[in-house]
Design goal:
The complex is a heterodimer of chains A (580) and B (190). Chain A contains 22 helices and 22 strands. Chain A is α/β, with parallel strands linked by helices and 580 residues long. In chain A, the strands form six sheets. In chain A, strands 3-2-4-5-7-6-12 form a seven-stranded mixed sheet. Chain A has a five-stranded parallel sheet with strand order 14-15-16-18-17, with helices on both faces. In chain B, strand 4, helix 2 and strand 5 form a beta-alpha-beta unit. Classes of the chains: A alpha/beta (580), B alpha/beta (190). At the A-B interface, strand 1, strand 8, helix 11 and strand 20 of A face helix 1, strand 2, helix 2, strand 5 and helix 3 of B.
């Protein structure tokens, strides 16, 4: 049966058809839907792990136990999971182990643009790279086979355009793969120096065998259209190149991103006057070619930054540009904003108003950095708000402690904020940490996490008690506020900053987009009372704007959260079912 | 058949994913190769969002570049103005006349351009303004603007009516089906 499927959905179908039994992941755009879709198949045990390192270790454990196992993450998630990956490369697998890593060229939803191929090279594991949804499914199935054949973890590298494009997939049945035998094998699975030395020899031999495999595998495909130009490419760039250049050039499409073949590329390149390497982000294929004396052109034309496209390729190689019409007009940008009714808004307003230094983190609330709130000073990676604040306060002392906070979401706190909080208690700064508990993993599209009380299937599960957890690690001052109350939130922040010990404020209110959250009727502005002071615009609510000199509330989006009402000194914003 | 390209643009939360799913299903049922490229994650949060739909005998790139779109469906005026450079010569620009202020306009850092529909028409393109919000309200929900605009698009594509109805039944939850069918009809006849 043919179906239109997202790359991620097709990936999940591949897990199903390949007989995968255990999947553990942490959500991260653009990888999230793989595990969400996999969870719809009852034959695959699926879970959201607290972070990518845990997910990777769960998958490694399941693989050693003899099951086909999976873990999925975004590119930066693999940094978190790199520790187990590099040693799982040594232990190898029992049941097949497939890891999805989704890169985000162009940074649609990420804090950096790193190229995850470096991790495959450094950890010396096999990496495959599909270019559409059908290949996502096929490469997952092939990945499990190769993982077992070569005794290696297999990374399948995705990118935003592969993960989040739908294309046609031929759907097949599941093949049940029985659990492999598990038998204790200390030299293979216990990586202490004596055994690891032996396994490193194995890893080096394995990568040589994988190169030989890459020389002949049909995953690396030549499309010989004759001509004077050869193109070496991989993943989504193959699709861009085909669209731009069609059959006017010949292609070597590398389905295996690591290790790269040598003879195959040499023989291909030898047939053409000019050979181009078309790859996004880093110059991995190009450097490989040049190392082996193969003359190619790549980054001198395409650069290292952002996504490629058919028009970039057409412009660089054919000198062709499209005609188009545009308005001679300054079009204001429309950056993403915190949603109407977002519970984070009140916290950021209080921080902005009091000119607090804010150590930020990764999630919807990073939008607190945008105008008009602009209430964020730093954002680095998951968990860095808490540990970074401690460092900031150690460097600047009491003056900083009284004027700075960390903000971190519930899921991010579980992911890697807890260890930072332990450090604050143990190594003693009077830091103030605000946990923005909106009862869900928001930015990636509402996944449950250990603080929500539900698992990936929506079934009841153990729930982390954040207050008790914070107290247990040594924070005595823990309090909960409702961020819809500006007065309460601001008072709590001031009191905790003044306290001579570390503290945690939990700002608790569910995400306004959650289906079970009831919204109040939209608010409205009494135009006679509005003094045009624009105080209500300071919270950056997308519903409020000025019309004919008076504030106006857009009625389809307003959730009646009431923050603007609290802010209006003239009582001009009213509750009344939106009836003006 | 040569590859055709349709863009759906709007503001995060306006329902572009349903519109693209609907269109994808219609095209699949007509036996085309289809690719639909979506935006998820941060940019969805009230930002400018774009979905690419491409179909033909064989589609390679899932994205659409400047000067390539045969049609652009815009859920909002400013977004129509923003994305019009992506329209191919002779393409159709179907846009809702609804206005949603972006944050720089709300904060006063920028102003919302005046008379966008007239200026778009003056470009000499097939610019089709639609009061999609009123029609959606008439159908029963302001959120059905997306389906109203798909109704307008259907008049430019030449597929049998039933194909669209089937796709609606497949993509819309049963309790909203009648309302969406009405929205589609209102768009088609506008």
């Amino acid at each position: 049966m043919k179906k239109l499927m997202l790359g991620n959905e097709a990936f999940a179908r591949g897990l199903y058809e390949a007989g995968c039994k255990v999947a553990s992941s942490y959500p991260g755009t653009p990888s999230t839907e793989i595990t969400e879709e996999a969870a719809k198949y009852d034959e695959i045990y699926c879970e959201w792990a607290p972070n990518e390192k845990v997910a990777m270790e769960v998958a490694i454990g399941a693989s050693i136990a003899g099951a086909r196992a999976f873990c999925g993450m975004k590119h930066v998630g693999l940094n978190v999971a790199a520790d187990p990956l590099y040693t799982a490369s040594y232990t190898g697998v029992n049941g097949g182990l497939v890891i999805a890593v989704a890169d985000d060229p162009g940074m649609h939803s990420s804090q950096n643009e790193q190229d995850s191929r470096h991790h495959a090279i450094a950890s010396k594991v096999l990496m495959l790279e599909p270019s559409d949804s059908q290949e996502c499914k096929d490469y997952v199935k092939e990945g499990f086979k190769l993982s077992e054949e070569f005794d290696t973890p297999v990374i399948v590298r995705l990118s935003t355009r592969v993960s989040h494009s739908q294309s046609i997939v031929d759907v097949l049945d599941r093949e049940e793969i029985p659990l492999k035998n598990y038998s204790k094998n200390i030299p293979k699975y216990v990586m202490m120096p004596a055994m690891a030395r032996g396994r490193h020899v194995f890893v080096e031999e394995r990568i040589k065998r994988l190169v030989e495999f890459a020389e002949k595998s049909p995953l690396n495909k030549i499309e010989d259209n004759g001509g004077k130009i050869g193109v070496i490419t991989s993943g989504i760039c193959y699709q861009y190149a085909k669209e731009a250049l069609g059959d006017s050039v010949s292609y070597l499409k590398l389905g295996i991103a690591n290790p790269l073949p040598v003879e195959l590329i040499k023989n291909f390149a030898a047939k053409f006057e000019t050979v181009y390497v078309i790859e996004e982000l880093d110059d991995i294929i190009e450097t490989h070619c040049k190392k082996h004396g193969i003359n190619v052109k790549g980054k001198e034309l395409f650069g290292f930054i952002g996504e490629l496209s058919q028009s970039i390729i057409a412009e660089k190689l054919l000198g062709k540009t499209n005609e188009f019409a545009a308005l001679d007009e300054n079009i204001p940008v429309r950056p993403p904003v915190m949603c109407a009714g977002c519970p984070h808004r009140g916290v950021f307003y209080a921080l902005s108003k009091n000119n607090i230094t804010v150590s930020g983190d990764i999630g919807c609330y990073t939008l607190g950095a945008t105008a008009p709130l602009s209430a964020m000073d730093t954002t680095v990676c998951m968990g860095a708000s808490v540990s970074g604040l401690h460092g900031f306060n150690k460097a600047r002392g009491e003056e900083a402690e009284k004027k700075s906070v960390a903000v971190i979401g519930d899921s991010t706190f579980i992911h890697s904020g807890i260890t930072g909080l332990i450090n604050i208690a143990y190594n003693a700064t009077n830091s103030t940490v605000i946990i923005l508990d909106n009862s869900i993993t928001g930015m990636t599209g509402h996944q449950h996490n250990p603080t929500t009380g539900y698992n990936i299937k929506g079934d009841p599960a153990a729930k982390v008690d954040l207050e008790k957890l914070c107290r247990a690690v040594g924070i005595e001052r823990v309090r909960v506020v409702d961020p819809y109350s500006l007065a309460q939130t601001e008072a709590a922040i001031k009191e905790e900053l003044a306290a001579d010990e570390p503290s945690v404020i939990i700002a608790r209110r569910p995400c306004a987009l959650l289906k079970n959250v009831k919204h109040k009727a939209p608010l409205y502005v009494d135009k006679d009372k509005c003094k045009s002071c624009k105080a209500c615009l300071k919270i950056g609510c997308p519903c409020i704007s000025m019309k004919d000199g008076k504030a106006e509330i857009e009625q389809t989006q307003c959730t009646g959260c009431g923050i603007c009402m609290e802010l209006c000194k003239f009582g001009a914003i009213k509750e009344n079912g939106g009836k003006e | 058949m040569e590859t055709k390209s349709i863009m759906i643009v709007g503001v995060g939360g306006q329902g572009s994913l349903l519109a693209s799913r609907l269109l994808g299903n219609v095209l699949l049922s007509q036996g085309f190769d289809v690719k639909v490229s979506e935006v998820h994650g941060m940019s969805q949060r009230g930002g400018s969002v774009v979905t690419y739909v491409k179909y033909g005998d064989k589609v390679y790139s899932p994205v659409i570049e400047k000067g390539e779109a045969d049609a652009i469906i815009a859920f909002e005026q400013l977004e129509a103005a923003r994305w019009v450079p992506y329209l191919k010569k002779g393409g159709h620009l179907i846009f809702s006349t609804q206005k949603l202020n972006p944050m720089p306009v709300i904060t006063g850092a920028a102003s919302y351009p005046e008379n966008i529909p007239e200026k778009l028409k003056a470009l000499g393109i097939d610019a089709i303004p639609v009061d999609a919000l009123s029609l959606a309200k008439e159908a029963g929900s302001p959120k059905a603007s997306n389906v109203v605009l798909m109704g307008v698009l259907s008049t430019k594509m030449g597929f049998p009516e039933k194909v669209w109805q089937d796709a609606l039944e497949k993509c819309v939850p049963a309790k909203f089906l009648e309302m969406n069918k009405k929205a589609f009809e209102l768009g088609k006849n506008s």
